[in-house]
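[job 0412] stage=complex_fold ligand=zinc ion status=START
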Amino acid sequence: MKLVRFASAALAIAASVMLGGSPFAQDLGPRVKKLADGVYVHTGKGFDSNSGIIITDEGVIVVDTGQNAIESRSVMEAVKKLTSQPVKIVIDTEPHNDHTTGHFVFPQAIVVAAAGGGESMRTANTAAPNRIETARASSAEMKTALDGYRFVPPHVEYRDRMTITLGGRTVELMYMKNVHSEADTAVWLPRERVVFSASAFVVNQVNILRPFVTIPDILAAGKMMKALNPEHVVPGHGTPGTTQIFDDGEKYYALLTQRVDAAMKQGKSLDDIKREVKMPEYASWGSQDRMPTNIEAAYRALGGRI
Ligand SMILES: [Zn+2]
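[job 0412] stage=complex_fold status=DONE, emitting structure tokens
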């Protein structure tokens, strides 16, 4: 009896593999990938932000709610296909709109962010009061997706570190200072060896380095996350991968810093350096218009005054 059941289960698995992966693979669509048991990534289109889905016996944790309200609803659809559990917790890897506008799609969730996340969201909201109206006007689909919109800043803000235990899963939140936004969080699942690495490093794209962002802080964050020895790395934007993402970023910043250093030693001004320093090895990366912010950060890291 046992053997028969085993054989038929094996047959069913073999059949589903032949049909293209796990029994759920077709249902979830090509943008949802399983990273570990109960841990999924909903990948953004192009450079749109990624979201994480962590399923537990006591509810679901969502990491970032998507690029916009359409994406948030797509994340919610994926959750519904995976489990009947409600989304209880949303973790923000950063407070920017392209990670947080869709919080209202998860009304039962407690939103958790690093200290400063709420202030960043409120400031951005005040600075662009017509943001949601503009988005509504962009398409009929967006208008529908924004039905019931509410501004939902974090309910809980932590400092430095926080551990969440839900339904037998452990999720560690680690604050990363000065890597991208006012409140960046790495989300680490020690048992599943998955890290959601926020926008400290993005993939195949030049990152925007704001005036408070420093290259040494970015590199320190990469080192910290690499030391966790993750199997999967899910960046805030770009294709999920491995710690290779941190290695590639390190290499890029080392070369950039070396070139800016050489130009500084020739006594060049920052304006000249911004004009002259080129990174042809990375010409295929997106968002090349952000390069001046990268050169400026390298200049600051080398002791240049702005
Ligand atoms: Zn951002």
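Residues 94, 96, 180-181, 199 surround zinc ion (CB under 6 Å).
[job 0412] exit 0
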